[in-house]
Amino acid sequence: MMFNKRTSPYVTGKQDVSVIMRQVLYALVPGTLVLIWYFGWGMISNLLLAIVFAELLEWGMLTLRQRPVRPFLSDYSAVVTAWLLAVAMPAFAPWWLIALAMVFAVVIAKHLYGGLGYNPFNPAMIGYAAMLVSYPVQMTIWPAPLDFSFAHIGLGQAVQQVFAGGSQSWDALTAATPLDAVKVNLGLHKTLNEIYANGQFGLLAGQAWQWVSVAWLLGGLWLLWQRIISWHIPVALLGSLTLMAGIFWMINPQVYSSPLFHLFSGAAMLGAFFIATDPVSASTTPLGKLYYAGGIGAFTYIIRTWGGYPDAVAFSVIMLNMAVPLIDYYTQPRVYGTKRQQG
Amino acid sequence: MIQTLRKLWRNPGGLHLDYHKEISNTKPVVHVPLADELIIPLQQHTGYKPTLTVAVGDYVYKGQEIASHTGFMKVPVHASTSGTITAIEERPIAHPSGLSDLCVVLKPDGKDDWGNTRLSPYPDYTQVDGETLRLRICAAGIVGMGGAVFPSAIKLNVHDNIPIETLVINGAECEPYITCDDMLMREQPEEILRGVQIMMHIINTQHALIGIEDNKPEAIATMQAAVASLGERRIEIAAIPTLYPSGSEKQLIKILTGKEVPSGGRPAQVGIVCHNPATARAIYRAVVLGEPLIDRYLTVTGKGVAEPCNLEVPLGTPVQHLIEQAGGYTAAAKRLAMGGPMMGISLQSDQIPAVKATNCILVSDVAETEQQTALPCIRCGRCAESCPASLLPQQLYWYARSRDFDKAEQYHLFDCIECGCCAYVCPSHIKLVDYYRFAKAEIRSQREAKAKADLARERHEFHLERIERAKREKAEKLAKHKEQAKTNTDDGKKAAIQAALERAKAKKADAAAAQTANGETSA
Ligand code: SF4
Ligand code: SF4
Hints:
The complex is a heterodimer of chains A (343) and B (523).
Chain A: H1 17-39, H2 41-64, H3 69-73, H4 77-88, H5 95-110, H6 123-134, H7 136-140, E1 142-143, H8 155-164, E2 174-175, H9 178-187, H10 192-196, H11 207-225, H12 232-251, H13 259-264, H14 268-275, H15 286-306, H16 313-330
Helix pairs in contact in A: 1-2, 1-4, 1-11, 2-4, 2-5, 4-5, 4-6, 5-6, 6-16, 11-14, 12-14, 12-15, 15-16
Chain B: E1 30-31, E2 38-41, E3 51-52, E4 59-60, E5 65-68, E6 77-78, E7 83-92, E8 100-108, H1 130-139, H2 152-155, E9 166-170, H3 180-187, H4 189-203, E10 208-213, H5 217-230, E11 235-240, H6 249-257, E12 272-275, H7 277-289, E13 295-301, E14 309-314, H8 319-325, E15 335-338, E16 345-347, E17 360-364, H9 382-386, H10 393-401, H11 405-410, H12 421-425, H13 432-522
Parallel strand pairs in B: 1-14, 9-10, 9-12, 10-11, 13-17
Antiparallel strand pairs in B: 2-8, 3-5, 4-7, 5-6, 7-8, 13-14, 15-16, 15-17
Helix pairs in contact in B: 3-5, 4-7, 10-13
The structure holds iron/sulfur cluster (2 copies).
One iron/sulfur cluster binds at residues 386-389, 391, 393, 416-422, 432-433, 436 of chain B.
């Protein structure tokens, strides 16, 4: 009997890029549901638009680059990028803002750098940061979170907001995000106690935002449990953010928000479990992951506190992405049978 | 079960695999009846090919040497049974690239006649010195039977400046499916232990550690009982956690002793010698019974054979014959490999013989076409997490692919043991190990080419140098001649003048003397 030749190993594990990406999508569900609870149609339109644009662009780029379309389109990596962008964009973001963000993410950050696996920067964060820099006004108008938001902003109003660019009654419904509110009011020389007194803040941080963050945390813990991500990045990112916030908070709690506030408002949880953990653009060695994520946490705190933007996870991630080759080089693990080398 | 409490060390990486051991380890091992034809490759070890000592048409006895071992890194080969040599020719052998090699084809006469080819036994090996025993081990054709087939006698040749602390016996058998060492330890514990004692005598050590993965409780218990009944206090059985690839020599040494074999080095450098249980048994049989290595335990298994089993096989038996012993192929038979699913060599045909290195024939049901297409590396780092050598497989892959071999070497390409863990876990289904094999082969051939070029250049330079020297010497000689000629002529002139002067002086003196004499006479 004759057989085909192949090289070992002849068995492979069950993990697969598409399986991993799907797990990430599952883990995003709780946080997304909470967002939908508070922002209703606004979050749903964000998601649908982002995914449609992402897949279209992915298909277009694969065709242009003459790559096999099917295995790549079915790897879900574009969906993950789209989803991450959708939940980071303000609810009811106009369609063109999302389209443009996806162009930056999929076309520029991903495919122009060689496609899946070759992009040095996190595509979703490039899309987000590009929009934040180019359209700061549109990017910071968040509708005020209201319980069960479908009731407050109806479908018609939502469609109008997304496709026709808003209406008169809209301004009354918007509100600054908690990080934004703190930043602006601190600028007006109010103390944190005075700022917190306005009722926009809840148990942990901003009222709606704290629950969104808790839901991201839950999804992230599930990813850890499923071994989709390792503990290094979330622990180092949240750890360094907590440490920085803790030190300054102890120095002056009237000017510097508590670590709890930093962890549960803004994108800290989303960043720690879903964004900084993007394997392609993150550091890959165990020690390197600690430095990389620790750096993101520290930069996030610095930009939030002294920089020009209320939240800074996107910028910090991009910044540390740049350092990854260097970090990886200096954090190679010690190889069996060799003496410890550089780093 | 008796358990020794022993501190074990943790090695990084590793995988929990599906072991499938139960499908082949339930029945006792049977000795395979002779096939119609045995194909015995001359080279079954790492090193040089031994010298053929028989010719076509010769009758050979069982155990008779058919290739001898005079020379370094050569191990002899013996006839596995009695019969006639019908051919000496190139036949396909188990090799990753499907090479053929010189084989002796033996037609058994069915008598299984030893004649008087048995080597003279040493019933009391303790009275024999290590050197003699090592010669015997080599003469019996014994090589590492775990698959690496390194000549055992050389491994046992240790130097006095690094005393051997521990003899490690590798009974881990960490590859899925393979159960032949398990069965050997269950059925022949005493022969193994006696072999271990012989080795301890040769390398002069007082401590042996037998590492067995804890998914083989029966083997552990049997071996422990055998140690107890021998009253042997120097040999210790250690149950180690089941984790692929704990049976890799370097990894096992780390787990059992905490020591790491230096990169590019040998275990003896850290005071350890490591052998396989089947090798230990073969040593016992060679020393105490005088039998050369002519058969071995091996596993025939996988979903592609009807009755997976362990067999004791005369070396040279074609794989096809072994498959028949295991009930033949099933309809699911899609791929054939020698060795386990992680590191085995894929075989194209079942006309290939079982050799000293063959521990397993695996017929699997996974077809080539079921392989997923490889996606780009997403740098997820899973490969690095699983690597038992703490390498960065994705970097090695990157550099091997871009043919940046210097970089690949900097990232310790040659410390890769090709265990396949990285390729197993890769979610992009990249055949990582293939890239490492490719890079290693390229680097080796580049090195060889460079060595050759260096040699050629050296020769050329030497040639030029010789011409140059010849010229120089000629010139020097010439110069010397001239010089000499010059001095010669100078001296000649002076001497001539001197001589002339002297002659003149003498004349004068003669004349004066004549005058005086004349005057005297005249006076
Ligand atoms: S496991 Fe595969 S995809 Fe992941 S880093 Fe390694 S080579 Fe790349
Ligand atoms: S094959 Fe090599 S690189 Fe891959 S896990 Fe094994 S030792 Fe590491």
